[in-house]
Amino acid sequence: MSLGQVWAIARKDLLTEGRSKETLNGLFFFAALVLLVFGFALGPDRARLEQAAAGVLWVGFILTGVLGLTRAFQVERENECLEGLLLYPGDRGALYLGKLLGNVVFMLGLEAAVFPCFAFFYNMPLWGALPGLLLTAALGTAGFAAVGTLFAAMTMHLRAREVMFPLLLLPFVVPVLLAAVKGTEAFLRGAGRAEAFPWLALLALFDLVFVTVSLFALEWIVEE
Amino acid sequence: MRQDGARSPVRRGGGIELRGIGKNYGATWALRGVDLVLGPGESLALFGPNGAGKTTLLKILATLVAPTRGSGRVAGFDLRREQGGIRESVALLAHGTHLYEDLTARENLLFGAAMRRRSVPLDALLTRVGLAEAAAERVRALSSGMKRRLALAKVMLAEPAVLLLDEPFTNLDQAAVALLEGYVGEVLGRGGSVLMATHDLARGYAACRRAAVLVNGRLIHEAPAQPGGLEALRAAYVAATGEGGG
Question: Considering only alpha carbons, which residue of chain A is nearest residue B3?
């Protein structure tokens, strides 16, 4: 597998996404709106906000992630570009890893923009917890995107892909979501690494399993 | 995961050899036992009506579709076991242009070169296909003909030993047709093989050294292209398909 090919695919996807800014802008405002609406619903009670904050944050991430990942393979439908990708020499694992890398960077970029909104709406001092929060976000996003990239490839030719994609994806990412919420909650409470570590380890394990399985599964999925 | 493609196999010369290739989609057989031998430096124009199996045959040769039965070698590589080697050696100019609309012409070629792990003088290539001035334009802004030229440039950077062309004359102006025919000659001149599927009997016949007709997944006529032979081919085509054979 060529790392050059992985990077070429990721770079191409990020360039394409960056140029069609409506997706990026739309997803950012959607995530900000989710945080805002939940913030209003929960009210000004600080204890309640703190209890719910991690869950609300990940609801925002997952919902925007689902919308973003639905598009992951749409760009390959136009002009039969997927066929073009399959014609290139080299392992098809590079196709999966390139797509995954593009999706993870795209989602992390979006999350980086959402974090300040979260801090503002929920009055959360994030600075001290930031390294831990970023690590949790990176591991959670990688796990979510690992499965999401695979299912985006599976559903790209379906007419009802917008319906089928979340239906297939969400049950699989429940473990990732739970571990990510618990890890984020530990860092937001300032509980420290000791409490967060088991959840981070679990996330890392999910990531490893999901990436490995998806890497092998994509070969069969893209074959006609 | 297949590992054959992970290596960088030594590129071999042209040549296609198919024995009894069949392909079914459910109950429908797109190809029913195609035998074909095309040596290095040889070209074949493949004619046939819609649904004859031309595109399926090209996709099998490009490893995009696995044959249901039969065996073969493309550029010296086994069709079933050495797909990585075939993908190193084959380029397909297909119906779809395989171009990314939001990337520029140059970025599309850059992506193609990165995926083929080749260092190619892209500016020279863009000049050759007449797109030097459109290099920084997004593909979305190019005309259909310019997109086809860019798709041809993407094929050229592969420097294929086996060139597969599916309806290559679509949307091409006369200059681009001449460019394509020149490139076909170049591939043949360096010992490559060219298989061209087209409805355009006159152009296909003129561009290739052999011609064949595929109907209902079977090769029913094959002959060298020679002066005066076009009428015989047209007659065979009309008899087999009932079409006018334009």
Answer: A91
* Partner residues linked to B44 by β-bridges: B195, B210
* B112, part of any domain: no
Q: Give Rg (Cα) of chain B.
A: 18
State pLDDT tens for residues A155-187: 888 888 888 888 999 999 999 999 999 999 999
Beta bridge partners of B29: B24
B144 lies in a domain?
no
Using DSSP's 3-state secondary structure scheme, residue B1 falls into coil
Question: Which tokens go with B50?
Answer: 């819609």
Among A87, A91, A218, the strongest candidate for a mutation testing the B interface, having the largest count of B CBs within 10 A, is: A87
Domain housing A41: 3-222
Nearest alpha-carbon partner for A37 in A101, A96, A110, A121: A121
**Tens of pLDDT along A104-116?**
999 999 999 999 9
Instruction: Give whichever of A16-20, B20-24, B205-209, B217-221 has the largest mean pLDDT.
Output: B20-24
Cα–Cα distance for residue pair A89/A205, rounded to 1 Å: 31
Torsion, Cα A146 A149 A150 A155, to 10 degrees, reads 150
Split into its structural domains, chain A has a count of 1
Cα–Cα distance, A197 to B129 (Å, whole number): 57
Q: What is the pLDDT of residues B52-65, one digit of tens each?
A: 999 999 999 999 99
pLDDT at A20 over 90: no
Mean pLDDT of chain A: 89
**A212–chain B Cβ distance below 8 A for any pair:** no
CATH code of residue B69: 3.40.50.300
Task: List chain A residues with CB under 8 Å of B1.
Answer: 91-93, 215-216, 219
- Nearest CB partner across the interface for A88, out of B101, B102, B115: B115
Looking at the domain assignment, is residue B61 inside a domain? yes
Asked, for residue B246, whether it belongs to a domain, the answer is no
State how far the Cα of A188 lies from the Cα of A191, in Å rounded to an integer: 8
For residue B2, give every residue at least 6 positions away whose Cβ sits within 8 Å of its Cβ, in sequence order, or none. A91, A92, A219, B83, B84
> B180: domain range?
16-95+163-239
Number of structural domains (chain B) is 1
